[in-house]
Amino acid sequence: MRERVRVVVQGGGRRGRRAGLAGLLWVGAEAITTLGVVVALLVVHQVWWTNRQAVAAAQERVRALEEGWGGPAGGAPVVVEGDSSGSHPSSDPVPGDSRAAPPGGPSAGASGGPSALPPAGAPARSAPPRSPARAAPARDEAYAVLRIPRLGLAVPVAEGVDKRAVLDKGYAGHYPGTAQPGTQGNFALAGHRNTHGEPFRYLNRLREGDELYVDVRGRRYVYAVGKVLGETSAGDVGVIAPVPRSAVKPGYGYGAAGSYITLTTCTPEYTSRYRLVVWGTLKTVVGGDR
Hints:
Sortase, Chain: A; 9 strands; 8-stranded mixed barrel
């Protein structure tokens, strides 16, 4: 009688373990790839799609405002008393770098209240005429249009600097407590530099003498860029004071009362660490109320 021979095959368990490990690695790789795709889609949505949405909505708001006014602002210029600059700039140097920095205001959201710095120097000249009295804009209400010809920009201006209600809509936000267009003081605005319409992305391209138009109910206030502050802290509220002067870098700013405009946004791009600031002074007023 033949004996049965039993053959024992070894190593099958090891191959099984290897196969299991390979399967786990494959699943892990798929999960990482899927996560990467999801993150990429979120980035595309935030950087590209939200921009398209905000820009389209902001332009529609500009059209609606102008239709309500009976058309774009324009007409015969109104004489502005005193110097066309609307103020006596201080003798401090203008920074060579055209990138600037704003106060504790947004591009990220929160705003710091203006700090009233005393005039340093010569007496103020005559203030430009005020528009007829109107009710103050309601919170978050879009009531004006800012145009910057050098940048090809036309953006609604809304009351307040709330991130969700104003800035994320692609609007420029008016710092509460600062002056309104054409009046003595500082008409101070904030806007996003990146994402959500990014209206102030290219503020660093502005140069001295560039014109800024602010249209309100058929009247156009023309400001001329005078000074740029390339970088300051987020809490530098001096830059939106009635007489704007940096509290962090006192060499930058103005020294006498006048009619100013201030544009603030975050810098460097895609961060909110510092602020970029552009200042201008009232040059003339065009048109009249309709």
